[in-house]
């Protein structure tokens, strides 16, 4: 994300919300250290020790009973955050495994297009 998207588009109007959750041994200290992974000022980072966001996105966006973690949800400039955010432009996981798809979807948005969810 940092080197392939943010550094390659330093003036792009992008906003990233990174929510760190306690899976795979994650904790507040690890989340604090993870800020080194995404040091870009367009990134807001949060620690969710109760995995509330993971459960909420799983239930409301993914429509799954399994927790949503190590995933991305991409919304364009027309997105509205009402009871459920939308429209969703692209989503996938794992983030590293789907980094090419995320990069393509963001590139399309930056060029003024859209990509299917």
What is the end-to-end distance? 19 Å
Number of helices: 4
**Helix-strand pattern:** HEHEHEEH
Which residues sit in consecutive blocks of at least 5 with pLDDT less than 50? none
Number of domains: 1
What amount of the residues lies in strands? 25-35%
Q: State mean pLDDT (0 to 100 scale).
A: 89
**SS elements, strand count:** 4
What is the spatial order of strands in the main beta sheet? Answer: 1-2
Helical content class? 25-40%
Q: Can you give a write-up of this model?
A:
This protein is an alpha+beta fold and 117 residues long. The protein has one domain. It has helices spanning 2-6, 28-34, 52-62, 99-110; strands spanning 16-20, 43-47, 71-81, 85-93. A two-stranded parallel sheet has the order 1-2. The mean pLDDT is 89.
Summarize the structure.
This protein has 117 residues and is an alpha+beta fold. The chain is 30% helix and 26% strand.
Task: Describe this protein with a few key phrases.
26% strand; 117 residues; globular; two-stranded parallel ribbon
Q: What is the element layout, followed by pairings?
A:
Blueprint: H1 2-6, E1 16-20, H2 28-34, E2 43-47, H3 52-62, E3 71-81, E4 85-93, H4 99-110
Parallel strand pairs: 1-2
Antiparallel strand pairs: 3-4
């Amino acid at each position: 994300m940092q080197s392939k998207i943010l550094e390659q588009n330093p003036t792009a109007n992008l906003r990233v919300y990174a929510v760190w959750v306690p899976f795979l041994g994650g904790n507040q200290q690890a989340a604090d250290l993870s800020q080194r992974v995404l040091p870009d000022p367009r990134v807001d980072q949060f620690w969710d020790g109760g995995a509330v966001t993971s459960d909420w996105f799983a239930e409301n966006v993914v429509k799954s009973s399994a927790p949503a973690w190590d995933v991305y949800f991409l919304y364009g400039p027309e997105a509205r955050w009402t009871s459920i955010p939308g429209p969703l432009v692209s989503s996938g996981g794992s983030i590293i495994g789907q980094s090419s798809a995320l990069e393509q979807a963001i590139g399309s948005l930056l060029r003024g297009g859209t990509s299917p969810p």
